[in-house]
Structures are given as C-alpha cells and as structure tokens.
Amino acid sequence: MKIKNRTLLWTSVVIICSMIIFLLSFIYVYNRILLNNNITYSEKVVKNAVTYLDNYIEELDSIAIGANYNYYLQNYLIQEIDHETGYSSFSNNKSVQDYEISSRLFGNELNDRIDVSSIMIFGRKRLLLYKTMYSYQYVVDSFTEYPWYRDAIEDPDQVKVTGPQKHSFLLGNTDNTVSVSRMIRNYKDGSFLGVILIDVNLNRINEICEGIYHESEGKICVINEDGTVVYEQASGTEKDLSLENNEISKELLDAIRSGKKENLTYSVDGEAYQIVFKRMEKTGWDVMMMTPLSMVQKSAVNTAKLIVGVFVVVLAIMLMLLEVVMTNIVKPISSLQRQVDTIDKGNLELLELPPRSDEIGDLTTSFNHMIDRVKNLEDKIIQEQEDKRKFELQALQGQINPHFLYNTLDSIIWMAEIKDDNVVPMTEALAKLFRISLNQGKETLTIEEELEHARNYLTIQSMRYVNKFEYSIEIQDEVRKMKTIKLIVQPIVENSIYHGIKEKKGKGKISIRAYREGEDIKIEVSDDGIGMNREQCDALLNGKVESDKRRGSGIGFKNVNERIKLYFGKAYFIRIISEVDRGTTVMITIPASE
C-alpha cells in the first residue's frame, strides 16, 4: 500500500478512535463535574439553611435563657413553685407584682414577634404563667409526660425542640407549631423552678427555606428526628420522593441517618435523585436538598449530541481534504519536522532546507525569522531580569542603610533614657518599616501596605524632627487592595524631607494621595518645601543627584523610576512638578491591577 493511502487509512482510524475515546471520556468527566458541582451547590444551600435555622433556634433559646436570669420571674417562681395547687394563686402582694412584670415582659415578646404564638411556664403540677394568642384549657398532670417537658427535665442545660405538633391544652390552635423548651432553675442554688415552653408557627421556618432556594426543579425538605416533615418546598410537577402522610419513607430515613456520608442517590419510581443533607446540631433535624439526576445530566447529554454532530461533519471534510493535500505536504513537512526536532531540543540554529517558492519555503523563512526574534527576546529578558534584580537589590540595600538604622536606634535609645512616651511608637514603626520592606521576599504588595510603609517612615522622622513638619495620607478605598511593587513611595517621601522640608524655614507639610484615574493608579507625594528648578528635577530622575545615605535610605529617584518601567512597562514612570520656593509634587503612575 502506498504511503499516501496508508497514511489516509491510519489517519482516519486514529481520528475516529480518538474522537470516540474523547467523546466517551468527555461525557463521563463532564457528567462527574456536573454532579460534583450540583453536590457543591446543594451542600452550600443546605449549609446555609442549617446555619439560618440553627441561628433561629438560638434566637428562640435566648428567650428561654433570659427567663433563667429574670429577677422578677425568678422571685415569682420561687414563691409559687412550692405552693402549687390545681389552680393559679398568688402567695402575697410581692408575688402578684412579680407575676405582672414577668407577664408583661412575655406579652411584649409575643406582640413583637409574629412567629411566637405562646410562651408558657409549667411547674410540677400546673401552669404557672402563660401568654398565648389561643385560649388555654386547664390541664393538671398530663403535661409532665409530654416530650418537650420530659426532655427538658432530663437534660436541663440544653434547649429542646419538638414538633411540628398541636397542643391539646390550647383551644383554637389549628396550625402546627414547633416548640422550644428549657428547664428554669434557681440561679442561686440550681433547684427546679419550672419548664418554659415557647411555641412558634412555621411561617419563619418556611420563610428561611424559601429565601435560600426557590428554583423550579429540586426542592428543600426539613425533617425532625422522627422523620416527620417540618418543611417541604412546593415541588410543582416533580415526584413526591416517598413523602407519605407528611413523613419521609423509612428506607430514605435510614439511608440519611446511617451517618456514612452527607449525600446519596435515591430512586423513586425508576427515577434517580441526588440528595444532599446535613444534621442540625441543636435540634437533631435534617435539612435535605433533592435534585433529579435527569435535570443535572441534561446539559451533558445536549453537549454530547452537539459534539457528535460536529464530529461527523468535520470527519467527512477532513477525509476529503486529506486526500487532496497529502501528496504535496507529507514529504516537505517530514523534512521540516526533522529540522524542527533539533530546535525542540534547545538548538536555536537557523533551519537549513533546500530553497522552495511555496508555503513550505515561506514557513521555513518565517521560522528562521522567529528563531532570530526568540534569541533576541531571550537576551532581552535575561537583561531585564538582571536589571530588575539589580534595582531591587539596590532598593533593599538602601532600605536597610546602616546610617538610617543607626540614627533611628540612637533616637530610640535617647527616648528610652528620658522615658519619652514616643519610644514605643517609634520602635513599632521601625519594626513595621523593615517588615514591609522585606515583604517575605515578595516583589509586590498592596497600595495600602506600600502607603503604610511610608506612614511608618514618616512616623519615625516626625519624632526625630519634632515640629519640623506634619503629614497626611489619603487613599481611595477602590485602590487599597490593588498591587504595586514595593519601596516606591518612601524614597520620594525621604527626598521631600531632606531636600524640601528640612531646608525650609519653619514648619512644612507633606501630603500623600493614592487614587484611581481611568485604568491607572496615581500616587501623589507633595510638599511645601524649597522646591527645585527643571534642571534639578531632571538630575534627580537621571540619577545625577544621589540621596544622602548618611541621613536616609539612599534609594534614588532613578532606582524607583527604572523599577516601575521594568515591572509595568515604559508607559509608567515618575513625573516631578516643582517650583522654587513653592514646593514639589511627585506623581507616580502605575496600572490598576489586583
């Protein structure tokens, strides 16, 4: 078989097999991604629901906890608990007063909250205090067997949540309520004073769940420890997921309560659902997110169909074109490939192929040009990296200049000897100055950190040169977290102090502003010092005037300017605006980057 025909055959086989493998792999991987994304999303929804519901239970529990520390309620219960009869009575006038104050407090709570339907306190034999929107039917001993009462007695330090339920001792209560109960103890000796029962309707629970998830497909369910549904989102046309008589099926409940993991796949009438659930710590309830797998996988199926259609069309076109071009391409391409392989191994020598006037010849010429550009670019990058390291090293060396460090430490020692209150702020400023300078070896930091570095430097100098200058720093909130290279503002501030303010008679001022202007960030450092003429400004930028290393960090304007250009490009630089005897403004321009 000829090379061309063999190439066509094997190319076709490889393409078809590769596409089949790719298609199957894509469908599998994409389907897993969709399922995992849905699990992640469902876990987030369920976690939010659990958090909000737990917070709501804690909010209700705070009412019960507050009852344990209410002075008037404690007095009333202490007087009444040992005088219980079948009917309500008061031991004395003080008991009446304590009852009225406590009753008014619970009444206010009932009026302020539309979700609370009743607040009651039960003793050992009778109801001691209540506020409810329903009528109360007198009960004697039967309430002591209710779970909300019994559980609160057995575990007095924990809140108990029961329901949904309808209390037989409340007349006119047609709606299910959730009950929050807790034992009330004498805060002096810990003795039993009663059990507080707070009934809430399901409106707030429904509102929390509906606010978290309101999609048309899938739903949220909340079930209590017995498997009774506390909340179930309206499901539209979707199946009922084995919810019978307002209770979840035993099979699904056992799977959820097995504790192996917090998600599972469950089938109802032949249709699979992805269920993600999480237990509420305080109540023992479970919050579930149920999503049909058919809905999750719909996107993968549609994408697979599209890929198959495109593949068939592309394959047919490729086979036709391959026959036409194979003869003219295979041979020269092979020759070119052998030459290119040497480049792949790091040999950047020009290709040597017989001259051609077709596309292969053009490709060879272009490739040789590209090799030249790559070699030039490689040299340029190496030089730029060396320049970056050189200027950054100069900046770091200047920042830890021994003269500046010695002068500052000398000032700290002097302050310590005279017990000056500024010794701690100056020491702290010096520590922060060097910490930000080093920046854990990183070249970039935020605008906020760079200006904090300048603030620390100004703090030190303002303490060394008392009443010589004042300063202000303004930073636009939008640019606080944007990135810049380090050590570009402090050298400018240093120049303002030593060459502007220090030579001025009287007190000077230094102002620093950072703000966004279009796609750029502007950092202005202004002083009202002696100013400079144009020649002096140019000399600073060109490095012909060095900073005084004996007094400051020694980082020159040229260093800052060159580092900005090397890192951000030549479109970004330092500009000096100065007028003799009027002051100087230095404008730093860098790109807005997060």
Number of helices: 14
Helix content: 40-55%
Largest sheet: 5 strands, antiparallel
As residue ranges, the low-confidence spans are: 236-242, 547-554
Name of the CATH homologous superfamily of the domain at 408-591: Histidine kinase-like ATPase, C-terminal domain
Termini separation comes to: 60 Å
Q: How many extended strands?
A: 21
Computed structural class: alpha+beta
Shape: flat
Strand order of the largest sheet: 2-1-7-6-4
The CATH class name of the domain at 408-591 reads Alpha Beta
Q: Write the CATH architecture name of the domain at 408-591.
A: 2-Layer Sandwich
- Under CATH, the topology of the domain at 408-591 can be stated as Heat Shock Protein 90
Radius of gyration: 39 Å
Q: DSSP strand (E) fraction?
A: 15-25%
Mean pLDDT, as a whole number? 79
Catalytic activity: ATP + protein L-histidine = ADP + protein N-phospho-L-histidine
GO molecular function: phosphorelay sensor kinase activity
Domain HAMP: 327-379
Pfam families: dCache_1, HAMP, HATPase_c, His_kinase
How would you describe this protein?
- There is one protein chain.
- It is built from 14 helices and 21 strands.
- Helix 1 (3-68) packs antiparallel against helix 5, helix 9 packs antiparallel against helix 10 (423-438) and helix 11 (447-464) packs parallel to helix 12.
- It is flat.
- The chain has helices at residues 3-68, 71-81, 93-112, 147-154, 203-212, 250-257, 293-344, 359-399, 402-417, 423-438, 447-464, 490-501, 534-541, 557-568, and strands at 116-122, 127-132, 135-136, 160-165, 170-171, 177-185, 192-201, 219-223, 229-232, 243-244, 247-248, 263-268, 271-279, 286-292, 444-446, 469-475, 483-485, 508-517, 520-527, 574-579, 583-591.
- Helix content is 50%, strand content 21%.
- The strands form six sheets. The chain has a five-stranded antiparallel sheet with strand order 2-1-7-6-4, with helices on both faces.
- With 594 residues, it is of the alpha+beta class.
- A hairpin with a 5-residue loop joins strand 8 (219-223) and strand 9 (229-232).
- Keywords: Cell membrane, Coiled coil, Kinase, Membrane, Phosphoprotein, Transferase, Transmembrane, Transmembrane helix, Two-component regulatory system.
- The chain crosses the membrane at residues 7-30, 306-330.
- Residues 485-594 form the Histidine kinase domain.
